[in-house]
Amino acid sequence: MMTFTNIRTLREQLKETRFTAATKGKQIKIALVPTMGFLHEGHASLLRKARAENDLVVLSIFVNPIQFGPNEDFERYPRDPEKDLALAEREGVDFVFLPSVEEMYPQPTRTGIKVADLTDVLCGASRPGHFDGVTTVVGKLLHIVQPDRAYFGQKDAQQVAVIAQMVLDLNFDVEIVPCPIVREADGLALSSRNVYLSAEERQAALVLSRSLLAAQAKADTVANVTAGEVLAELRDSIGAEPLAVIDYVEIAEFPGLAPVAGGDRIDVSERRSDVLIAVAVKFGNTRLIDNVILTKKVND
Ligand code: PAF
């Protein structure tokens, strides 16, 4: 495993690796797994899939300052590069890219990427500018690495939708591979921010997966159930947890993110797109997100 902090050196090594393979008559497939580090089993699942599907796996670890708002947790975001490198080594990563903020954003930086509309709803409504920071950094990483595939977790379902739109609009030659949410045995979706939770808050946070799974079961099994009915139950269930402060509870088309009207039936077999049921809820100072996606079955 090789580590790089410098963009030029990483590019040169990638070029040489592609060239060496080409001289042997092989066109290698390169995967990029972009992360902010403090890696957990969710990231490991992305790395495993990337490893299984490609010849070379590049992991980037960069806590991206421009996707954090002024009162958010950029400074205290958990970091543990040594542990991350050990996990990367175990998962068979080839190249790790660990740039500094100065390397990624030489001053002055005046260019960014903004995806319209999809970034105004859900997390974009509560975190203005967040997705501009995400698309700008992911755009830069895609440009630097030029991977064939890039892997993202579905816990950030809106992020997946926004990045897929950016790739489409700007003709990035890369396949975006969404990967399922990984949960603890008790249902809590894995997140680097889970370390902020006290024992009491962590217990309270289980209400998210419990309520979302109940919503999914209702949508799957109750004939003619409407989005409004599912939403009301979800809001009641999360609202009944004293430590939970709801930021949003929404039902939207996926990946288009247009809200599903309350009176509309939620049954995906009758819709053109999948349906996202997404929540963002604060427990103390920690804002957690979680979701389920109702997908169309092959025969629908
Ligand atoms: O999902 C994340 O960890 C970040 O938003 C990403 C995609 C690495 C961009 O900084």
UniProtKB/TrEMBL annotation:
Active site (catalytic residues): H43
Annotated ATP binding sites: 36-43, 153-156, 182, 190-193
Catalysed reaction, written as an equation: (R)-pantoate + beta-alanine + ATP = (R)-pantothenate + AMP + diphosphate + H(+)
Compartment list: Cytoplasm
EC number per UniProt: 6.3.2.1
Record GO cellular component, one term: cytosol
Binding positions for beta-alanine per the UniProt entry: Q67
Subunit structure: Homodimer.
Miscellaneous comment as given in the Swiss-Prot or TrEMBL entry: The reaction proceeds by a bi uni uni bi ping pong mechanism.
Protein name per Swiss-Prot or TrEMBL: Pantothenate synthetase
